[in-house]
Specification:
The structure holds two protein chains of two kinds. Chain A has helices at 2-16, 23-33, 35-60, 109-144, 155-168, 171-181, 186-195, 199-213, 216-223, 228-264, 276-283, 292-319, 321-324; strands at 80-81, 97-98, 149-150, 153-154. Chain A is mostly helical. Chain A is flat and about 90 Å long. Chain B is mainly alpha-helical. Chain B contains twelve helices and no strands. Classes of the chains: A mainly alpha, B mainly alpha.
Chain lengths: 326, 332
């Protein structure tokens, strides 16, 4: 009787407790405290919206025209009005004002920056997508099927030796060589950056898989006779994603920087695509005559890459329980 | 008894070294094969560098291809390259000069830059990182954290251009190139001052990324160590705070950095392309860039090969050093 009562009261107490925190809530509670990471997240959110709006307004419904050449209006500083008597009305910018000035051909820098925001971001995301895909594939294979023998070596040895080989290349030099030899194309740049930067991800995923393989829930899933693809894709990959997510966020930042470095050396994305990297590297020739051509893309890259880095670092802290306790 | 023990450990060490060297040689061969195939399979050839030249006849292109063995199968070309590299006969496609002396001379030019950059990186990032870790959460910590992120987020050439403008306008000193042209007859003092000014800004700029990354790493290592039991014990037995931090914590926090020596040189060589281009510094990175423009395959491949050798030697040395300084690590 007494035990029954105490069980009842425990149940009531449990019912009165707040519902247990889900992982997502816990993650958000920690991330919220990191003001720099939140700043990064807000900037990235705005940037994503801007890039999508930019895709609409510069390509499909041309409100901001990045490619119209207006020679009478070249090298106008930011916020200057277009010369109404020389430019035909259909070529004039919106409201007749160049928000970020014009470049050496009289193109609207604001429109070019908008166009570039989408292109730069897509380079970052696609390159990182490729590198994460390769990294998860190779790391997962090496972690899950590591003991399988292929002739005289194991899968694990084979893949990890290959990773070591890739780590031996001086990355930027390799990217530069391949991009210079291949025909200039935006897709080649994305692919080359992706193919040369997956090694970190592969190592993280392998390490996570090795430790997950021994854990009870995976052993239980195996004992239940679940098919291997289900164990890998439903049970292991979601649990191995935390470090991948962090390195992917930081990877986007470094891909954008790599693209701007390639642009500086003359192997970046070719016209007609505008990216922040090539606007910046074109602008370096006019640093005295038209400083806005140099400083606007430069600071834009700085702020966006900074936002990616800060957000990535915030993610790392929030997703890693070991760091959290300190 | 003790003597046999030392012999055994020496034997273990040497088999460890021998096996590692063997493994790394295999890796190196695979690296060279991959690099060779990538470069030769990609479109674009030395014979096509100047396609619009009207004097270039089809027979000339054939001659070029024959002279560079470009018509042979890939594995034969690979053997030619390896043979020439190790006999020192390897010639550049561009000017028919031997490749190794050419690279060596450019490497000597790059060397002061590399040494300076390394010194700046290590001497700035350690104090910064340690102080940030000790005063965790303070204004100093937050400022340096933010600055470090800002520094790795700036495109290198953007910052360099701003820096060049500022330095030239403020101090009125030359910064482009290795030395001022026409200073050869000047006094020794002026010449070395001139060289120094030319060296400072490029090495600072190539060090920036390293400072940011390394100081963050020092900070996290320090934080890791400061939370350990033996640090608490040291405090508990009444040691002064300086003694705790610099004698007990720092020594252990420094251990992982031994491994970073290995990666430093290759990383700086890889990153030097952009900075040597900005500052017109006739170094290794610039040689690589020029070789890429000229489709000068032997030079590209050899620079790549040397970078790979440096990486492998560096990692081997740091593995061994790590085992020497940290007795907990056992060679197996």
């Amino acid at each position: 009787m007494a035990t029954n009562e105490s069980a009842m009261s425990t149940q009531q107490e449990i019912a009165q407790l707040p519902p247990p925190e889900t992982q997502l809530q816990e993650f958000w509670r920690i991330l919220k405290k990191d003001r720099l990471a939140i700043f990064g997240m807000i900037v990235l959110g705005l940037l994503l919206m801007l890039a999508i709006v930019a895709k609409f307004t510069t390509e499909w419904v041309v409100i901001f025209d990045p490619s119209t050449v207006r020679l009478p209006d070249k090298f106008l500083p930011p916020m200057s009005e277009s010369s109404t008597n020389l430019i035909p009305s259909e070529d004039r910018p919106v409201f007749g004002v160049y928000l970020c000035g014009t470049d050496e051909l009289g193109r609207d820098v604001f429109a070019r920056m908008l166009q570039g925001s989408f292109v730069s971001l897509s380079i970052g995301f696609i390159a990182v997508g490729i590198s994460v895909a390769i990294g998860i594939l190779l790391g997962g294979l090496s972690g899950y099927y590591g003991n399988v023998k292929l002739g005289f070596i194991t899968v694990d040895t084979l893949i990890m030796r290959f990773t070591d080989v890739m780590l031996c290349f001086p990355t930027f030099f390799l990217i530069l060589t391949v991009v210079a030899l291949l025909p200039p194309s935006i897709y080649n740049i994305m692919i080359v950056i992706g193919v040369t930067s997956w090694m970190g991800t592969a190592r993280f995923v392998r390490a996570e898989f090795l430790s997950l393989r021994e854990q009870d829930f995976v052993v239980a899933a195996k004992a239940l006779g679940l098919p291997e693809h289900r164990i890998i894709f439903r049970h292991m990959i979601p649990n191995a994603m935390a470090p991948v997510l962090v390195s992917a966020t930081i990877g986007v930042a470094s891909a954008i920087l790599t693209e701007s470095g390639l642009s500086f050396l003359g192997f970046g994305v070719q016209p007609p695509f505008a990216t922040w990297g090539n606007i910046l590297s074109d602008g370096k020739g006019f640093i005295f005559d038209a400083p806005w051509l140099f400083f606007i893309p430069g600071f834009a890259i700085l702020i966006v890459v900074l936002a990616f880095n800060l957000f990535g670092e915030g993610l790392r802290e929030a997703l890693n329980p070991k760091l959290r306790r300190r | 008894m003790a003597k046999t023990g030392t012999y055994a450990s020496i034997l273990i060490m040497w088999t460890y070294i021998a096996r590692n060297i063997l493994q790394r040689i295999v890796t190196l061969i695979i690296v060279s094969i991959v690099a060779h195939s990538v470069i030769h399979l990609a479109p674009g050839e030395p014979s096509q560098v100047d396609p619009s030249n009207p004097r270039m006849k089809p027979s000339d292109i054939e001659n070029i291809r024959a002279a560079f063995h470009l018509d042979d199968p890939l594995h034969v070309q690979y053997v030619y390259w390896m043979r020439d590299l190790f006999t020192g006969e390897l010639k550049s496609f561009k000017d028919n000069q031997p490749v190794l002396p050419k690279i060596w001379q450019r490497f000597l030019n790059s060397l002061p830059l590399l040494i300076c950059a390394t010194l700046i990186i290590w001497s700035l990032s350690f104090p910064t990182g340690i102080h940030a870790a000790i005063r965790r959460g303070s204004t100093y910590d937050r400022t340096t954290t933010f600055t470090a992120y800002a520094l790795i987020s700036i495109p290198g050439f953007f910052l360099s251009y701003i820096m060049i403008l500022w330095v030239v306008n403020t101090f009125n000193v030359p910064v482009i190139g290795m030395k001022t042209f026409g200073m050869e007859d000047a006094d020794m003092v002026f010449r070395s001052m001139d060289r120094l000014w030319h060296l400072v800004i490029p090495s600072l700029m190539s060090a920036i990324g390293g400072i940011a990354v390394l100081s963050r790493y020092v900070r996290s290592q320090m934080l890791e160590v400061v939370g350990q039991d033996y640090v608490r014990t040291a405090r508990a037995k009444g040691l002064s705070e300086d003694n705790v931090i610099y004698r007990h914590a720092l020594q252990n926090a420094l251990l992982p950095f031994v491994t970073m020596f290995g990666f430093l040189l290759p990383a700086l060589i890889g990153g030097s392309v952009i900075f040597e281009q900005i500052f017109a510094w006739p170094g290794l990175g610039r040689l690589g860039y020029e070789a890429i423009l000229a489709r000068d395959f032997p030079v590209i491949l050899t620079i790549n090969f040397i970078a790979a050798v440096l990486t492998l030697v560096g990692t081997l040395v740091s593995d061994l050093l790590y085992a020497v300084v940290d007795p907990r690590i056992r060679l197996q």
